[in-house]
Batch of 4 targets.
Target 1
Amino acid sequence: MVKTERFISIEQTNLILLTIRLISVTGGIFWAIMPQLYTVNCNKLYLIFIYNVIIAIYALFFIVRFFVQKKDDKTCFFCLFTFLFDELVISYFIYATGGETSPFYSGYFVIISFTAFILGTRMAIITALFGGVSFVFANSYYGIGLYNILEYVYKIAPFFIIAYPTGILSDIAEKHIKEIDTLNDTLNAKNKELEESLNKIESMQKQLLKREKEKVFLELTENVAHRFRNPLMSIGGMADLIEKKIKNTDNESNIKKYVEHIKIESKKLSILLDNLLQMSDTSIELKFASIQKITNKVLEELQDKINSYNITIKKDVDEKIPPTRIDERKLYIALRNIIDESLESMKSGGTLTIKVIHSKEEKDGMIEISIKDTGLGIPKEILENIFQPFKSGGDVKKGVALPIAKHSIELIGGVLQIESKVGEGTVFKILLPV
């Protein structure tokens, strides 16, 4: 039965039952040999012998229990047999301590309740019947007749009154336990199916991610090849021209012009390679650094462009912001690329506003760096792809400055946002964790 498997088959429960039985028998022996309870049916040496036999049998039960299969009908019958033996022990103590008036009479109720709870109604009725018979035999020495037959019936009837309803409740509990086990099995099966489905979804996601990476890589390769082709062709053409000019002993000024063109194209290739290397760099080195100093450094390096484009710089920096734990180089690259793009959008002049404040939008506390220009703004179709390498929208091809900026900010745990309106300008917002 399920309750037997859950309860009596547990090793700890087996040990507890053995302990209870040993304590009960030992207490019963001391009770029986008390002088005021001593009867002709009780010999102390005989009691000690009986005590040793009972203890040995209980120890044997304890050992045999480990060899009885937990999910076999043998378990039920073995447990029933041990409870019937308990009733025999109780009957013996009743016999040795005065018959029906013995205090050991209440032991029947304990055994019958245990049987009903663990083994169910049928086994509980058998235990109650066996207890009633053994109780009668235990009192046969003191005499049984018509004068006291009703008294014995009154004593035995509670055995069945306890056994039947307790057994019914136990059987109902067993039914619910089986239903719960069935539901658990169903739930486990569904969980297994769900886990398999999740594994399939994860596998599909990995495949999609792999394909997406391959697609991005192919697009990047195509764009890089396109970007390299023009400078290389230009360099090759300039080299041919130089060779011809040297053969024709052309003047030195023309040769210098071609050499300068080669230098410019070579520099473009070098910058492009540096950008690609930066996009592939995922290493970070966190340390405390001043965002204000990094911003000032970028503006100093771009000062010539600021002056040539006649751009006004406005700064609103919260001086209370302490040094922040960031990757200084990654933030420098991001700020330089963003500010440089903003400057390029204002070649005819304008205003660049840089703010460094504590963000009020984020609950967890963030540092907000906003870079606002008054340039021409970015069209919506270009803005959608602004952070994709070499691509902005339609036939427009861009570089990797802004994708690198986004990549760098995300590596240090930040967020890069962009808002733009054509004719009004663009705002870049960087949110960094404190």
Target 2
Amino acid sequence: MSQESCNKDSTCETCGEQGSCSEAEKEAHSEELLKKTMGRIKHKFMVMSGKGGVGKTTVAVNLAATLAKNGCQVGVLDADVHGPNIPKMLGLDQGKLDGSPEGIKPVSLYPNLKVVSMAFLLTDPDSPVVWRGPLKHQAFKQFLSEVLWGDLDYLIVDLPPGTGDEPLSIAQLINDVDGSIIVTTPQDVALLDSRKAVSFSRMVKIPVVGIVENMGGFSCPHCGKSIDLFKVGGGEKAARELNVPFLGRIVFDPEIVQSSDRGVPFVESIPDSKAARAFSEIGKKCEEFVNNSGSKSSQGEGGITGISKVKEMLKGKSR
């Protein structure tokens, strides 16, 4: 079978003719399947942070829920292989991925919100995933190409902290990421690392949607006085210095922690709170970003024009 003749939507593993194909033909079919699947998704966002503990997954979960509440078709890819928390925070920790000849069926929270995570494949939630970069890259390729995402308005990819294997793999595989959303807290240590995430995005020619300042202030429930637990304004200052948009400030609210532990998006449990309103504004700015016809062209391109550099870096890491 020639590479050009295989136009099936099924994966090679479920195809009865896979024995007649060479490895090169299987790879060509895999690339075509990835292209077809991603072609049905209008916009793709990467949610990043330079370091852990800044609430990046909380932002990804509530941004996805906000967009879904607005009537959008949304998918969430939990790309944190070693610490997949998306299912727990959405109340889907008992969910499992189902396979079919056509592909992998994602787990749904709402009819218009689909989720894929490594957590859905673990038989024991306490089992660690001990994988090097190449294995993670292959897993991401399957999650992106073989999952039945369908027609989506947005795919939100929740990345682990840092600028290593996972963001490089996602950037290479999707190839036309609309933008990165950088999450930070106002403290200097977090801001230092968040600036690296902005620089990473620029290096691989992915537009920066903006910076989200999380845990920016706390209102005492007893006296109402505002307390700056991790300072305030650092994220906005960094956005100004780096010449990227400031998407908004999310105040520290203990109910966000409680909602996450219960598996309910905060924007759904307490929609009228100050933090939920901030998420709503961030969602609007993300929609405005992709609806702005110049959002990609103004920063070079939405895809990775420097893809050869990414491939070079990936090869270097696998040696």
Target 3
Amino acid sequence: MMPELPVVDHHAHLREDRASLEAATQFARLGGTHLFLATQNYLNRGPDSIEDYRAQFETTLSIARTVERETGVRVFPVLAPYPVDMLGQAERHSLAAAVEIQVGALELAGRYVRERKAVALGEVGRAHFPVSPEATAAQAEVLAAAIRVARESGCPLVLHTEDLDEHGYEELSALAAKGSLPLNHVVKHYARTYLPAVQRHGVIPSFLAKRETVVAALSDPSTWFLETDYLADPERPGAVLALDTVPRRVEWLRRTQPELVERLRIPFVEAPRKVYGLELTVPKRP
């Protein structure tokens, strides 16, 4: 028999619309129990002020409450200004103004964490594509501020970056050490490629739940998560992976290699405990 484990998607985005609620309902129907909900821009323009981000974060909290009420899935909000926002802000204002907006939004997100309305800062970091040297320096300044706010708030930092090789993981590890942020609070979101723990230098990966990546990660005894990075975007339905992917991976494993299902205790129980201090259990069924 399959062990009674929670089924956790560590990173997804939803909107205040029927498609998002239907996706969450399907996630629950197939066995999903817990969801880390990362904020996103809900406007038809980029955020341009702290008040824009306050409205965005409140929308994320409202979505979390709705999903919990309608589906029974436990939702954990993750809040921060998206690093790519800074590029548009710099074009509309100036790079210095964009940095000021980003740091102010990080401070705001930190307050939400300290008030226990959110569990982490994220996504933070840098653009996943090349930018100018000036923008690169500004991104580094904002990331240093994010590390500081995460340390002061006692919470994890969920990082958005380019795809990382060992050198990239080592760089993030060094930045965390410089900012006195514990490595168990440093999470690389959207880890598309499996690298063994020795090459990750203490940074915790949140692996994209593609079948081949799940298979590779199952033999890894260190700390890791699974995610879909589901994006409720009407122009890109189902991007990146469908929200029901993680429970489907569990069911696939149960059917094909049931002896390995217990390995999912790492991303579903042990990683939330080590990184977030959360004790996730299977909710009682009515």
Target 4
Amino acid sequence: MFRLKSTLPTLALVLASGAFAQNAGTSFCNVTNNSTGMPTTLTGSFGSGVGSDLHLEVTQGVPGELAYFLAGNEATSGVVISNGLNCLIGTGTAQMFRYNVAGSPSSSIGRFDNAGVFQNFVGTSAVGSGFDVPDTIPGSTPITIMSGDTWHFQVWHRDRAVQTSDSNFSNGLSVTFSYPPQPVAGMVRIPAGSFDMGSNAAGGPPYYDDGNQQPVHNVTISEAFWMGEHEVTQAEYQALMGSNPSNFPGPNLPVEQVSWNDARAYCTALTAQEMAAGNLPTGYEYRLPTEAEWEYACRAGTTTEFNVGADLFCADARFWYSYHSTSSCGVSSAAGTIDVGSYSANAFGLYDMHGNVWEWCLDTYASYSPGAVVDPLVTGGSVRVFRGGGWGNGSVDCRSAYRSSGSPGSSDFVIGFRAVLALVLVP
């Protein structure tokens, strides 16, 4: 079912520079120092999980004094009021609202503690201080925050240490709201993070490492992304592409006999569908994972050769032979694949990262270089990477770090793919 997002109960705050940034907003208004000799500082971040998802924090206020938040649809020239500068003055076009409506989610009144940090009185902050902005701007007729809107915030607080006045103001903060990608069903959010990519496993049994996973190097995945919890199934592929090339038919079996080009075409079609439905903001797409994204997601925080530990046994995944139990897993070319999700998920909630079918990645194949890297993507080569091992492989090929490759136009009944929803990349 298509989902068109227009208001903010289900929206998150993102900046034009990219989603999941930790700080939000642009300061305006030259703040005046309060009686402590410091400027009261207003900052924003997304991710409170309530209301508009915008969380505001205030520091360097006057200890013991009351404060509350203001909002406006237009940043105005500063007007001196008592000991501060107010840049959200109501005019013929500009509107100013107070977030101090008692008994509502807009009740932002609080007091600065001994360190000058705003402490919310009425529990409208998930973290105990500051203020979680609700999805409406208060007023005689509440205004729903819409995707694409820019609102401006400022904090008033008392400053009774100044004999001639009892008011002061923080800096202003301008924030533009936008919706994040709305993933299709079955996608798992993978957080940003760092890991050691590759393997120093020995060349003998049971890993038979061939050195292509070296040197081990640190990789940072700087942006969160979504990944299919399982390989693309035949039912999903058929519904979107109108055909099913698989050798082993079954709606819940992974699609196979798809080339890298086929997998890319599927992702392009899914992107077009979800863009038309209003579920993708500019800069996002469905695509194949990079090789680094794939291994990071497969490991899910583990450092062993498999995300289930140092060994892979027949009960752990769909593959042919375990070099740890030195026994066949009873998988034949007549049986082939198994329904996705038949084995336990890893710590990220992803199924079949080991075995079942190999999975195409976005990158071309190249040897690793030493040194830490951020968001690597290899382009320009003649063959493309696939990962994870398949039903016809031994445990050695199913290792988290194991790499293989093939022509982008080739297909096989041991190769499939899974999609990610992430920032646009050009392979």
